[in-house]
Specification:
The chain is built from eight helices and 13 strands. The protein is α/β, with parallel strands linked by helices and 314 residues long. It has one domain (28-307): Rossmann fold (3-Layer(aba) Sandwich).
């Protein structure tokens, strides 16, 4: 599990056998009313009653939470990852007590997020998130979700890539629908949710002639399909999407620019600059598929465009 910002008691609600504590943090709605009655002189039946006008006061929880869920994109660079940048931005913009809880796990897929997680205590990042939302209902201002990019990793070099992609996309859609429905129900109506689509981590292979470039070009179609299917699932759940794919210009292979790697498509140049891959002229990319520091800034910016102003849950 990714490091959580200086919050020593943050997981105090968590106790074996991994049940949320009974107390639920919520918004308190205080309604007060008043009435007055006056009587006329003796023998007069007339009575007047002042109109009752309730006043409503909403109490904002002392601590508001931002819950980040997903794979390594949300935690790979530690405090330089996009959730930490978003949390800092919204603290400075009027929510000084906003606390980030980053449950993201490296290597997580939509399947492992539900069960057999790569890092989540108890084996389910999804289950942990549901319990956290239930325990802090009314105090979670924002949930961001970045999951699904790893679901097609096994399809990069399979014997039957088309069949692999088709079955993986179907499984991803089913899993994501389950995850989003459960999270929304646990959080209640006031919590903001924002998902994300994905960038293309294989574009560095374009620099290698032959098989490397062919793989990079084929990956554009596969990543585009994955992003589109993610967007459909988020839309079905009423959740807006940060367009990370566009922010990384992942499909722009028509325009060429000068770069340290020669004249390359815009998509290749952006991937080489914003990801932790190692781009090399005439060779496939070196290991890596996560955003670097500059890439995290771009992803945070894509989320900010969708989130806009962030306030307490209502």
């Amino acid at each position: 599990m990714a490091e959580v910002e200086a919050t020593p008691s943050l997981w105090s609600w968590w106790r074996p056998p991994y049940r949320a504590r009974a107390a639920v943090v919520g918004l308190a709605l205080l309604i007060t009313g008043c009435s007055a009655t006056s009587s006329g002189a003796a023998g007069t039946a007339a009575t007047t009653t002042a109109s009752t006008r309730p006043t409503t006061t909403t109490t904002v929880p002392a601590t508001l939470y931002y819950l980040s869920l997903g794979d390594s994109v949300g935690m790979w660079n530690g405090p330089r990852s996009y959730p930490y940048l978003l949390a800092a931005k919204y603290r400075a913009a009027g929510l000084p007590r906003l606390r980030l809880v980053d449950m993201s796990c490296s290597g997580e897929t939509t399947s492992s997020m539900i069960s057999h997680s790569t890092c989540a205590p108890g084996g389910s990042q999804y289950g942990n998130a549901v319990r956290f939302l239930q325990a802090h209902r009314g105090a979670v201002a924002l949930v961001t979700i970045g999951i699904g990019g790893n679901d097609l990793v096994g399809c990069i070099r399979p014997a039957v890539p088309a069949t692999c992609v088709s079955s993986s996309l179907t499984r991803m859609q089913t899993n994501l629908a389950t995850i989003l429905a459960g999270l929304r129900q646990a959080a209640g109506a006031g919590t903001r949710f924002v998902g994300m689509n994905i960038y293309n981590p294989l574009l560095g292979d374009w620099l290698a002639p032959g098989a490397g470039r062919a793989l990079a070009l084929a990956a554009v179609t596969g990543v585009n399909l994955l992003s589109a299917d993610m967007e459909k699932r988020f839309a079905a759940a009423g959740i807006p999407v940060a367009n990370v794919e566009n922010a990384f210009e992942s499909t722009d292979l028509e325009r060429f620019v000068s770069s340290p790697w020669g004249r390359v498509p815009v998509a290749v140049d952006v991937a080489c600059r914003l990801l932790d891959i190692t781009c090399r002229r005439g060779a496939v990319e070196g290991f890596g598929d996560d955003p670097n520091t500059a890439g995290a800034v771009v992803i945070a910016g894509a989320f900010e465009k969708v989130i806009g102003t962030l306030g307490p849950p209502r």
